[in-house]
Amino acid sequence: MSTFDHRTLIQQINQNASLLRKAQPEAMQGFGVLAKAAMAPGAVSEKHKELIALAIGITQHCSGCIGFHVKSLVRLGCTRQELEEMLAICVYMGGGPALMYAAETEAAWDAFHSAANINTVA
Q: Full-prediction pTM beyond 0.90?
């Protein structure tokens, strides 16, 4: 298992992004509106949109994207099998570099999934 902590990473990103939200509120609000509209369920479910977003994050080598989208997928009830089938496509389309981020995604899945189970049991 990776020692990379995606939960801490997304907390740090959120904290650091608050500076940009203060400096550029209209641009950041626009990004938020775009994200909300793009991820709204429609002909494609929110879960499937999150899988697509995660696949793009993996192939673009974005650890922050992995953290945010894995967290959402756990919340949406994505199964490990669904995740791993998507990861296979990422490796197919992105080669070796995508494989490295797919492995990172497995570790993020374990971290968020165990945290979700702790929160539902406690």
A: no
